[in-house]
Write a structure and sequence with these properties.
about 400 residues, alpha/beta, 7-stranded mixed sheet, two-stranded antiparallel ribbon, 19 helices
Length: about 400
């Protein structure tokens, strides 16, 4: 099991994460889905002279966090790609979604495709990120469906055992999926492999990487020609991966052959889609933008790739500074615009640290980046053991 990020406010359900979907009272259950709580500003009242009812409005923007299934009612701008994925999933076992960093790949799957399938009914969802041990990560995602009668502790032990069997080939993935189908004969299963570039950034060597890919391909062959795979034909795999790691993926021929059968490329949003992202969540709360402000924001972000996290952060800051039911030009200038909002917030946070804390922060952040080798730098997860006990109070402060 992944090292728990102690002190970083994070809600982790041992077996599943249940969220109210946009369909009403139905719940979406995603096995092994690790979900970060939203930014504190999500619950902050307006800074201006808002009424009591207005002060209770929750922020409809996600800051730097991806949209999850409970955010489906506030997720806009990606209808076309969600519909394409929905149509393809009926006939394809393997759906790779590629896009630039910050293009919203995880949000498309978790807040777009998953709720769309939930409305169809008869789907079960399970989620993993490859991490440094991708076979174990996948086993953790499958065990609650493979052996649903186990308690949480037994599931952890079973996941380690299953990962060993998958590694040795003693239990092939098609057999695991066939057992899942036997457990849930009326349901289809969607396995979500999120942030798949971790396979190339978090320490898996070539041998482990190829073994994992061979295991995955055996369970989700593109042509469905394998007899055992056909017994598990209710299972689907959707993976999200940064497009700049496509070269890494293509370097292994069996995986390249599968990718050549077709992938989904998530390009930057156009002006109309970005307008939806800006206006519609606020409108759902009865809040509007001052005349000309949306155009001002669009002018700053329309030609910028990977801008969605920065845009969502700026919109979250604007929400906290709204005046009554209006988001104003004055607030936008005060936060420094889209590109300035996060930089200002980071600078203010850093300036508030002592000299010793600033040195600790530098050492911590160096361990949160993996320098690129022919690619852009990528983020990495650093555990408490790596960082050491001394800076942990600072880590918690910065994470909060």
């Amino acid at each position: 099991m992944a090292e728990p990020q102690e002190g970083i406010r994070q809600e982790i359900s041992e077996a599943q994460y249940a969220a109210t979907s946009a369909t009403g009272n139905a719940t979406i259950q995603i096995t092994n889905y690790y979900y970060r709580e939203g930014p504190e500003s999500a619950a902050q009242p307006a800074a201006g002279p808002a009424g009591a009812a207005d002060a209770d409005l929750l922020c409809p923007y996600r800051g730097l966090f991806h949209f999850g299934p409970d955010d489906a009612a506030l997720f806009f701008g990606r209808d076309a790609v969600v519909e394409s994925l929905h149509q393809a999933i009926g006939s394809r076992a393997f759906l790779p979604l590629l896009g630039a960093s910050g293009s919203g790949k995880s949000s498309v799957v978790l807040a777009g495709l998953v709720p769309r399938l939930q409305r169809d009914g008869r789907w079960r969802f399970t989620h993993f990120r490859p991490g440094a041990d991708p076979l174990h990560a996948m086993a953790l995602a499958l065990v609650p469906l493979y052996a649903p009668q186990l308690n949480a502790t037994e599931r952890m032990a079973q996941a380690r055992q299953l990962a060993g069997f998958l590694r040795s080939g003693e239990v092939p993935l098609p057999d695991v999926l066939a057992q899942v189908r036997q457990n849930f004969p009326d349901d289809q299963v969607l396995l979500i492999a999120d942030q798949f570039e971790e396979l190339y950034t978090l320490g898996a060597d070539d041998s482990l990487r190829r073994q994992f890919l061979d295991t995955l391909l055996a369970g989700f062959p593109g042509d469905r020609s394998d007899a055992r795979a056909s017994a598990a034909n209710q299972a689907r795999l959707v993976l999200t991966m940064r497009a700049d790691f496509l070269g890494n993926a293509l370097s292994y021929r069996p995986f390249a052959d599968l990718l050549q059968q077709g992938d989904f490329k998530l390009g930057p949003m156009n002006a109309e889609e970005l307008r939806e992202v800006i206006e519609k969540p606020a409108a759902a709360r009865g809040v509007s933008f001052e005349s000309g402000l949306v155009e001002r924001i669009l002018e700053e972000v329309e030609a910028e790739p990977g801008v969605l996290p920065l845009l969502e952060f700026a919109l979250t800051e604007l929400w906290a500074r709204r005046e009554g039911q209006t988001i104003t030009h004055g607030a936008y200038s005060a936060i420094g615009g889209v590109e300035g909002a996060l930089a200002r917030h980071a600078d203010d946070s850093y300036a508030a640290l002592s000299k010793e804390q600033k040195e600790e922060a530098r050492r911590v952040f160096l361990q949160l980046v993996r320098p690129g080798e022919g690619t852009e730098d990528t983020r990495r997860v650093a555990t408490r053991q790596e960082l050491g006990a001394a800076p942990w109070a600072l880590v918690k402060q910065l994470a909060d």
